[in-house]
Amino acid sequence: MRTALDEIGGEERLRDLVRTFYDRMEHDPAVYPLHRLHFRGHGLEHTRQTQFEFLSGFLGGRAYYRERFGHMDLREIHAHVPIRQADVTMWLETFDAALRAEGIEGPVVERFRAVLHRAAHMLINDVPDWRVEADRMGQGCPVSGG
Predict the structure, then answer these.
(1) Residue 41: predicted pLDDT
(2) Neighbour tally for 12: CB within 10 Å
(3) CA distances in angstroms from 8 to 11, 14, 23, 42, 93, listed in the order given
């Protein structure tokens, strides 16, 4: 049985997609707020790998993330991260741009987008947003100096 991962081109294609997504996050000033959230966590290199592992299982491939962490509960994974509507919109737009840049398209991508939209919106929360206090105090992200 073909999985959604097979339909987008397999693990290597997924690795390319994740690389393109995080390269955009790292280098596009318009996506700085997302980069900033990841910088405060384990950093982008860690996130690149865990995103690949999660998406592999999410798309019906090997569940690397579950094998490593015992679950794939998005709410638990993101429980400590302040996620607002603007963050969700930016994440989805950046992921869509990565899909386009990688030329990944077709019916499976439309289904993938629909599931990602639902999943991303369920992560919006009211966790205190450290970015607001840091901005007020003039303490931006050390990576960008902002």
Answers:
(1) 61
(2) 8
(3) 9, 7, 20, 28, 19
Radius of gyration of the chain (CA): 16
pTM (whole model) above 0.85: yes
Q: How far apart are CA 104 and CA 90, in angstroms?
A: 19
Closest residue by Cα to residue 56 from 7, 14, 87: 14
Residues 60-99, buried b or exposed e (16+ Cβ, 10 A)? ebeebbbeeeeeeeeeeebeebbbbeebbebbeebbeebb
pLDDT in tens, 99-133: 999 999 999 999 999 999 999 999 999 999 888 87
